[in-house]
């Protein structure tokens, strides 16, 4: 493989190098999803928000599938910690499913809840993480964690903690 191609794969798979952080690479990598969400919310028409987020999710999941064989070989690990496209995808699920609150609430609280759920891995995320291999095994537990985070945000709205 050429050095240029490897550099491009590394840049994409590590969310432009954020996944190479020595501490919390998944959290830093997921910030690319937050930045994409905020940019779309601020600069695009409101009607474009959900379609653009869904498109972003599809692109990230496709890149995850495309680059997983390379990442597994490069890091010699079935679920490399520096390969953070799954965290980007998981975060993007939150603003797709949670359609309320102010932008800063969705970005900040959604990010924090997603990372908490991704770290603790409530079933079935834990079973997927432990038993499913390949690109789907890498990304599905994060998508489940994103779903849990969105549901928790609806719970916080119901409890009066977040604005609807």
Outline the structure in words:
This protein is mainly alpha-helical and 164 residues long. The chain has one domain. It is built from seven helices and no strands. It is globular. The model has no long low-confidence stretch (mean pLDDT 96).
Task: Annotate the secondary structure layout.
Blueprint: H1 3-13, H2 25-43, H3 49-75, H4 85-97, H5 103-120, H6 125-131, H7 134-158
Helix pairs in contact: 1-3, 2-3, 2-4, 2-5, 3-4, 3-7, 4-5, 4-7, 5-7, 6-7
Structure described in brief:
This protein is mainly α. Helix content is 73%, strand content 0%.
Observed structural traits:
164 residues; mainly alpha; 7 helices; 73% helix; globular
